[in-house]
Structures are given as structure tokens and as C-alpha cells.
Design brief:
heterodimer, A: 283 residues, alpha/beta, Rossmann fold, six-stranded mixed β-sheet, 10 helices, B: 274 residues, mainly alpha, 2 strands, flat, binds adenosine-5'-diphosphate, binds magnesium ion
Chain lengths: 283, 274
């Protein structure tokens, strides 16, 4: 069974004028088809306004489709009786680290989700400890979130999701507001989680480098999925990506330019080591 | 300048008072405040003073921290004293010059009023100094829970309070940032009369409100995403449980109230006019 499955998923925002009258519909998602198997790491790329956040909000039943269907862990997100179990199955991490931390103390914030689920007190403490440990923030448990760095705040937010014991984590541009150090910190945390807990990860991002390790990459544009495949397949289609106003990882770019310059370098190089090897093989 | 505002100042220390259940501290503070206002004799105030000294000692909060809270009411204090001193006409005249008269009663009332106000502030700052804002909200929520029956949304109000506590520092910082940004654009916030200065605040308040609403929207989404749907069916990570020390504290405070009342009634202790 798929972890996340979408068939002919459509979502339309109502467009309103200044008085609040509906003047039209804005189709933010158009006939999306998506299949994510348990344990997979899926990256979703796309320019601003391409519908990535709208799609992410469907995975958590914050938005429900206006057409088609979305299943999370086999449950239809349109069904109000499944709402809580959908939200528990697919935890969500948002872009702005400040606006998603609810507690005034780190450990209380991590406990917020389990409290809502009605988990018994001792079990909450176990989960909070486990969540903070798995993001490496256990020593900050009694700190105020206001004093943490952006990367640390995002790790606390991830711990808050982990404490709900989800099967799947959806991260909507979790690194967009962080400095390079914070970005690395958050990505490393996500990778470790994947290894240790075998959770499904859906990472929405602007940074191509973050998609390199994904099992599958989806590229969105104007509410459609316009490309899908492994990172190697996707990033070898440099010109197409450019059309969707996306870059490729720097190394891929360099390899592409060298190839165009007449050197015999294979397509779809993602990592620095691969490029080094390819160049060494030349002579 | 704006960061100097501290709300719910908490003095971290490891003392018996800090460890008490927040409900105990709230109820006992209320009892103490009430006892002050039904008090009208010297012996009662002596007992109240001894009791306060005892609690301050036990709380391990330095005295100067407690006195800091008094600065905020110094104007109010002076106003009350002056009003009571000059406007009380009953009783024997102590002093008379030009249009001012000070009577025995006036002196007595203004001194007692000053003591009451000072002890009131000390008593309530002791509570906030020894209780984290979070514990305080939890305590209030738990104490007001019976109001649920009258459809007062107690849980929601407590949630609003604790979220406000989390966002006050963030919004203060943001105000600071916006002010600096507007000053860098040539905004003049310092000079001019009252009206001009109020007008100058508009370019600060507008972006602040816009950002506050955006934050509120984001936060609501984040709470929903984490399965929040009101107080129903929620469990607590840190439930409030009375321990033996909490019962002891209740006993001590009730004993104080009774003692102060009885002493005031049967041994009022008159010295001069007091
Ligand atoms: N709350 C909303 N109301 C109306 N339109 C919206 C709303 N949120 C997003 N949109 C529109 O939906 C489209 C997709 O937006 P979004 O999913 O946020 O894109 P992304 O996350 O990829 O930047 C955009 O055209 C945007 O203007
Ligand atoms: Mg977005």
C-alpha cells in the first residue's frame, strides 16, 4: 500500500475581491498523480507559486481536494472521521521556525502533539525524550525556544512531529529561512531520522542540492507535475529545468558545460566525486 | 529601550516556594491580599510583616528584586498617601497651616494604606517571581475549570495566555527591528508634540500588525497540523498534582490569616494614634 497516493487531485482557491465576493477560481493543483511508497525519500521541486505548499497541505488534510482524491496511509483525507489519524500519520514541518513553535519551553513544545492525541503522561515524557534525542536537542530541553538558532528551532519542530510517531514527515521548505550552517544541520537530522526510524520523508525545497539523495524527484509548475524521476534523470535534463526556472546543482552544471565544450563526460552527474572520477577517466 | 519591558519576571532559584504547586501560590496570594484589606490594627500588620519576611526568606529571592516592583507604583503610592493625609477631616487635628489640615485619622489611614499597597505589591511579585509564566497559566486554568460549566472557555483562554507569553518577546524584537528600519528611512520618532509623535507611530504599527496576523495564521495552521482541536480529550505532559508541601503551605497560610484576624480583633495593640 502506498504511503501517499493522489489521483486526479485538483485544488482551487477562491479568488475574492475587496468586499469578499468570490470573483473566480484559481486552480493551484491540476490533476496531480502522486505515489510515495513507505520509507521513500521524495523531493518536490518547483518555482514560487507552483503549488508545492498547496500539495503539502493536502498530505496533512489541512486542505481537502476540491476534485480527485488523496489517500494518506490508505485513508481518504476527505473523510472527517479519519482527520486525526491522517494528521498523526503525516507530520508537517513548516518554513518559518518561529511561527510553528507553540510551547514556551522546548520540551513542552515537543509534548504539544502527544498531548493533543491524548497520550498518557508517562508516555508523553518518553516520546519527548525520544524525539529530542533523535534530533540531537536533548540538552536544550528546558531552554526557551526564543534563544535558539534557526536550525535548532527547526530541529525542535521536527522533534515535535517525531513525538507524534508519524509514518511520514512532510517538510515544506524547512531550510528556506536558514543560513548554510542551519541548512546542513536540518538536512543531516532528516537523513539520520530516515535511517533510524525508517520514516517516509517528503521534502519540498528550493535548493537542488537537497534533492540529490532522494529516491524520486517531482518537479512542479503551474499546479502540474511536469517532471518526475530519479535525481539523475531529472538533473540530466538541464534545459528543461531551466524552462521551469530551476537550477541544477552546481556540479551538474559544470559537468554539463564541460560536455558541451566537447569533453566526454556522462550526463546526470550529481556529486563532486563523480565529476572528479569522470575527469580523471578522460586522459 | 523597548526590551527593558519584562512581563511576568521570573527569578529562577531552587526554593520551597518555587517548588510549590502554582495553584497553592495563587490561592495563598489571594488570601494574603484579602487579609491585608480586612486588617485595621497595628498587631495585624506586625504579624503580616513577620509572615512576609518569613516567605521572602524561604523564597531565596534577593530583597532588591522584590523592591524593584515597588518602583512601578511609587506615583500611585504618593498620590494615595497625600489624598488620605489632607482630605480626611474627622478626628483630632494634629497640624494646621494655611489651608492644610492633618488629622490623627488622616495620618493613621494614609500610613496603613501605604503599608497595604506596599505589601500587596510585594505579595503578588513574590508569586510571579517564584512561578514560571507557564505554571501560572496552568494554575489559573486548573483553578477556573469549574467555570466550564457556565460555558466559559477556560482552556482556550489559558491557551491564548500561554501563546501570548511565547510571542511577546518575538513581537517586541520585531517592533525594535521595524523601528530601526523606519529610522533608517528617515522617520523621526523622537521629536514633535504628542500628536506628531503618535502619527509617527503609524508606520511602525501597520507592518507590526500585518506581521502579527501572518504569524497568527501560520501558528494556527501549525497547531492544527499537530492535531490540536481544543481542550477536549487532551492529556497533560505536566499535570498539576498536590504534594505534601502544598497542603502544608495551605495550613500555614490559613493559620496566618486566622492569627492576624484574631490578633486584630482581641489584641489590637495601640501605640500613640495607631
Ligand atoms: N490562501 C490562498 N488563497 C488564494 N490563493 C492562494 C493561497 N495560497 C496560495 N495561493 C495560490 O496558489 C498557487 C500555489 O501557491 P503555493 O502552493 O503556495 O506555491 P508554492 O508553495 O510552490 O510557492 C499560487 O498561485 C498562489 O497564489
Ligand atoms: Mg510554499
Amino acid at each position: 500500500m502506498e504511503m501517499i497516493r493522489a489521483r486526479e487531485l485538483v485544488y482551487e482557491y477562491e479568488q475574492r475581491d475587496d468586499e469578499g465576493n468570490v470573483i473566480g477560481m484559481n486552480r493551484a493543483l491540476d490533476e496531480i498523480e502522486l505515489d510515495v511508497r513507505p520509507g521513500q525519500f521524495v523531493a518536490i521541486l518547483g518555482h514560487n507559486g507552483s503549488g508545492k505548499s498547496t500539495l503539502a497541505k493536502h498530505m496533512n488534510a489541512i486542505l481537502v481536494p476540491t476534485g480527485g482524491t488523496m489517500w494518506v496511509n490508505g485513508r481518504d483525507t476527505k473523510d472527517p472521521r479519519e482527520l486525526m489519524s491522517v494528521r498523526q500519520s503525516a507530520g508537517m514541518v513548516f518554513q518559518n521556525p518561529d511561527n510553528q513553535i507553540i510551547g514556551t519551553i522546548v520540551e513542552e513544545d515537543v509534548g504539544f502533539g502527544p498531548e493533543n492525541l491524548g497520550v498518557p503522561t508517562e508516555e508523553i515524557w518518553r516520546r519527548v525524550e525520544d524525539g529530542l534525542k533523535s534530533v540531537g536537542m536533548l540538552e536544550y530541553r528546558t531552554h526557551s525556544p526564543n534563544k535558539l538558532s534557526g536550525g535548532q528551532k527547526q530541529r525542535v519542530a521536527i522533534a515535535g512531529v517525531i513525538a507524534m510517531e508519524p509514518e511520514c514527515i512532510v517538510l515544506d521548505e524547512p531550510t528556506a529561512m536558514l543560513d548554510p550552517v542551519g541548512r546542513k544541520e536540518v538536512l543531516r537530522t532528516v537523513q539520520e531520522l530516515r535511517k533510524r526510524k525508517n520514516v517516509t520523508v517528503i521534502l519540498i525545497t528550493h535548493y537542488m542540492e537537497e534533492a540529490i539523495d532522494a529516491d524520486a524527484v517531482y518537479v512542479m509548475e503551474g499546479g502540474h507535475v511536469v517532471m518526475q524521476g530519479t535525481p539523475r534523470e531529472i538533473f540530466s535534463r538541464v534545459d528543461e529545468l531551466k524552462r521551469y526556472r530551476l537550477d541544477v546543482p552546481q556540479v551538474t552544471m559544470l559537468a554539463e558545460e564541460l560536455r558541451k565544450g566537447g569533453l566526454d563526460i556522462p550526463k546526470g552527474i550529481l556529486r563532486r566525486e563523480e565529476l572528479v572520477q569522470a575527469i580523471c577517466r578522460l586522459s | 529601550m523597548i526590551r527593558e519591558i519584562t512581563i511576568g519576571q521570573y527569578y529562577p532559584a531552587d526554593s520551597v516556594i518555587h517548588r510549590l504547586d502554582p495553584r497553592v501560590k495563587i490561592v495563598c496570594t489571594l488570601l494574603f491580599l484579602i487579609s491585608l484589606f480586612v486588617q485595621n490594627s497595628l498587631s495585624g500588620y506586625v504579624i503580616a510583616t513577620l509572615f512576609l519576611v518569613f516567605v521572602i526568606r524561604a523564597s531565596k529571592v534577593p530583597f532588591r528584586f522584590i523592591v524593584k516592583g515597588l518602583k512601578a507604583i511609587i506615583l500611585l503610592l504618593m498620590f494615595t498617601v497625600v489624598m488620605n493625609l489632607f482630605l480626611t477631616k474627622e478626628g483630632a487635628v494634629l497640624l494646621h497651616f494655611w489651608i492644610f489640615t492633618i488629622t490623627e485619622n488622616g495620618l493613621r489611614i494614609s500610613v496603613f494604606m501605604a503599608i497595604r499597597l506596599i505589601y500587596l505589591i510585594i505579595g503578588s511579585s513574590l508569586m510571579t517571581l517564584t512561578t514560571t509564566p507557564n505554571a501560572l497559566t496552568d494554575g489559573i486554568e486548573s483553578l477556573l475549570r469549574p467555570l466550564n460549566r457556565f460555558r466559559v472557555p477556560v482552556h482556550e483562554v489559558a491557551m491564548i495566555m500561554s501563546i501570548a507569553l511565547r510571542f511577546i518577546p518575538i513581537l517586541l524584537e520585531e517592533t525594535d527591528k521595524i523601528m530601526k528600519a523606519q529610522i533608517a528611512r528617515g522617520a523621526d520618532l523622537e521629536s514633535g508634540n504628542m500628536i506628531q509623535r503618535t502619527k509617527a507611530m503609524v508606520p511602525i504599527l501597520v507592518p507590526l500588525f500585518v506581521s502579527a496576523f501572518r504569524r497568527a495564521n501560520d501558528l494556527a495552521l501549525a497547531m492544527e497540523a499537530r492535531c490540536y482541536c481544543g481542550g477536549e480529550g487532551r492529556t497533560k505532559m505536566k499535570p498539576l498534582v498536590y504534594k505534601r508541601q502544598d497542603y502544608a503551605a495551605y495550613v500555614i497560610v490559613v493559620a496566618y490569616v486566622v492569627l492576624a484576624f484574631v490578633a486584630g480583633r482581641f489584641a489590637p495593640l495601640h501605640i500613640w494614634i495607631f
